[in-house]
Amino acid sequence: MLEFARSIERTVSINRLEQAVEEFQNALSKFNPSNLAGTAEQKELRNLLATTSQRLYQTKEMEMRGGTASDVIQRERTAISNQILDLIYGLDRYPEVSRFL
Known about the structure:
- By secondary structure, the chain is mainly α.
- It is 81% helix and 0% strand.
- The protein has helices at residues 2-13, 17-30, 36-65, 70-89, 95-100.
- The mean pLDDT is 92.
């Protein structure tokens, strides 16, 4: 798990948020839970990542449309970065997924 967490941290630190979300989603799709707890953990993390992905998409849309101040977009990307890092730092709340990673 430590290697996975470092990889995501590096990706977030260079502001490649879309890549970090995709890497996390790919890892979760490879996870094959053997019990209900693992399935619940996987579902919860997938939902959190889907929400994060939607926020990224909306931020990108705002940026492409223009009219939104760059500092607003940067604040939203920073909030999304923090959300991704919080997920990584909070993986100990998901023991089945943590064992897999």
